[in-house]
Amino acid sequence: MLLFLQSLLxxxxxxxxxxxxxxxxxxxxxxMGVINIFHGEMVMLGxxxxxxxxxxxxxxxxxxxxxxIVSLFIFGYLVQRFVINRVVEAPPMISYILTFGIHxxxxxxxxxxxxxxxxxxxxxxxxxxxxxxxxxxxxxRLATFGLALFVVVGLYILLYxxxxxxAIQATAQxxxxxxxxxxxxxxxxxxxxxxxxxxxxxAGSLISTYFIVYPQMGLPYTIIAFCVVVLGxxxxxxxxxxxxLILGVVQSLTATYxxxxxSGAFTFILLFIMxxxxxxxxxxxxxxx
Amino acid sequence: MAILEGxxxxxxxxALAAVNSVDFSVEKGEILGMIGPNGAGKSTLFNVIMxxxxxxxxxxxxxxxxxxxxxxxxxxxxxxxxxxxxxxxFTRMTVLENVLVGGLHGKNLSFINATLEAEEILEFFGLGGxxxxxxxxxTVPDRRRLELARxxxxxxxxxxxxxxxxxLNPTEIEEVLKLLREIxxxxxxxxxxxxxxxxxxxxxxxxIVLNYGEKIAEGTPSEVANNEKVIETxxxxxVCFV
Amino acid sequence: MIGLLxxxxxxxxxxxxxxxxxxxxxxxxxxxxxxxxxxxxxxxFGAVGYYGIGSYVTAMLMSKGHVPFLVSIFxxxxxxxxxxxxxGLPTLRLKGAYFGIATLAFAEAMKQxxxxxxxxxxxxxxxxxxxxxxxxxxxxxxxxxxxxxxMVAVIGITYWxxxxxxxxxxxAIHEAEHAAxxxxxxxxxxxxxxxxxxxxxxxxxxxxxxxxxxxxxxxMVFDVLIxxxxxxxxxxxxxxxxxxxxxxxxxxxxxxxxxxxDFPYTYAIIVGFIVxxxxxLMPKGIVGTLQTKLVTQKTRLTQ
Lengths: 289, 242, 303
Fold this sequence. Notes:
The complex is a heterotrimer. Chain A is mainly alpha-helical. Helix content of chain A is 72%, strand content 3%. A two-stranded antiparallel sheet of chain A has the order 1-2. In chain A, a hairpin with a 2-residue loop joins strand 1 (129-132) and strand 2 (135-138). In chain A, helix 2 packs across helix 8 (185-208). Chain A starts with a helix and ends in a 12-residue tail after the last helix. By secondary structure, chain B is α/β, with parallel strands linked by helices. Chain B has 2 domains: 1-79 and 157-242, Rossmann fold; 85-151, no CATH class. In chain B, helix 3 crosses helix 4. By secondary structure, chain C is an all-alpha fold. Chain C has one domain (2-223). In chain C, 78% of the residues lie in helices and 1% in strands. In chain C, helix 11 packs antiparallel against helix 12. Chain C starts with a helix and ends with a helix. The relative contact order of chain C is 0.17. Chain B binds chain C through residues 50, 52, 71-74, 76-77, 81-82, 84, 88-93, 97, 100-102, 104-108, 111, 132-134, 150-151, 153-154, and chain C through 165, 168-169, 171-172, 175-176, 178-188, 295, 299, 302.
């Protein structure tokens, strides 16, 4: 019983993280119909940014988050503006292939420059846990989970309560009308991508605190983002939360009761089944082409 | 016996019935017109006949056989073809190849026969000179004719025309009407959906009127034109009776 | 062609023979990918799944079952082709990008399953991450001819398909699937057929290459980079053209050979750049763009 609860809790904490970096993926698809295969690379970049700042300047990883936000926002904005914007009007398959190319460029350049070594970010407080009735809750993980939720909620607030957010939503719903109402579509696309990149960067920074950081880590994360977003509904931001939590729990339980490697297989099988049986997501609010 | 019949056809979109308990029948060699305001369910009905949708209730009967629930390509091979509201040529294939596909797959002809027939059909439609051009680069009126040509090539006995003449000028419309009459004279049956009243009234033997998914009237063009319910439906709508 | 047949006999270096063989196999793989994705437009991102299945079938048959090579590879092809049916039926109903994601998920799932199967079920079948070692094979010349044969077969089939009724169905599906269905094309059947043919040959090639490599692990034969190279080679050469794969595969394999020893990662980076450049500037690929230029010239001449 205790094992089950521990596993469940781990899954929830994990799920929150998954939700935080999948939200950006969902946002980008929802607003401009782009399937971003280098999404995982943005996680990787955020993680590496935190790693290097932590290692070189000894700044606490949680304090590196503002750097992630700014750098990745700029990165996302520029990539969208100059490369991706040319294919936003095309079928999603084109952006899929294009972003796959960008994925290769980023991942292998990182591999070249930073080598394949695994790195970790270990702080003085990494090992401290709270012990609630036999269930171990690492403080760092709890903080990460909290921040992850904060990110998702923050995105939601941005979209619904701010001027920019409303422009983004308008563009997502009907870009012709939005254009007529004075919205600069290209700028909104670039901003949206920047925002998506920024929150993914935050997630990457958080992830560096308890997962291994290495240049090839991107693609598995991208696939997880796919799974989360398909579960929750493509383009439906709150769905990222559900999808993330479900996936986190499923993975955690498989790892505990079967074996760790199989949890990876389950993710893909789950993704496959979801796409066939219920592509609009569990709640059914996703965008299906 | 009617060549095509719809019995109590109903199709839901969520809680709304796009087509509601519609009965109709068409005789061989007839031209049946179908009119109704936008959203009345005409396209949906066509899609149900064509097998794109399975009816939630009721059935479609073609030459005495029930076809509702079959896949569109099967229905096409059995003898019903449809043109789409938004023209869909095989853009990067030539005009000839477009029609060829119909003959190869709809009528199951050999390459030689399908090509010969395709060329004849293109001549009939006046598209012979364009046969080597990419279908994506011909004019819209020509594309509409190509859509019709492709449907004929499948060997269909019944052709459903879904606003095939939208956007054509009066001269072009006249030409298409001439072609349609000729096609009927060759033994085909047509069901025509158009918003241009002149066209529908002019060419149809009988007309059925849909509104909100239900059939509200049926009869000869003059009967329908004088039907009170029909007039009521079109009050406030832009209608060209010219 | 005749030239290619006699190359190994004219005293060319072993290195060139190996390079040519590699090119032949890449042309074969890309050609397979082209049959489904180039013709129908359904971009398959899980092609390596069938390649890997083929590799493992041959590896197990030859190392554990002592089944002769030629028999093994055809069994590999058959198994891959059969697996393609239950995978293809549900996924080929998905639209565009979702098909890409689903097939990617399939390939990655296969990798994980092969990795974890033995441990989970408690058998010694796939050997998990340790990989399987095959009996030592003949020299490169042998694989040169097998590769030549496979390449000719795949390109030949691609050519035959293009001019057949089946080919017209596939192209119609690519251009306007709904209209194709309404015109009598059994779209599902055509798609599945193309997918299974592609899977069969990918499985067969996987089997041959397993023998050539002599040692395989899941990470090697289910590597998504293999799929991506097929995509890029096809894209570069021209998707849906018969000789596109030939051009694209030759070009990219030569670049790989030039780079991979000294600059291992640069190859992947260049592949990435090629993707970006081709998608943005030359979506028809090399052969495709040339064909369009020729057609435009022909039209101009006949007017």
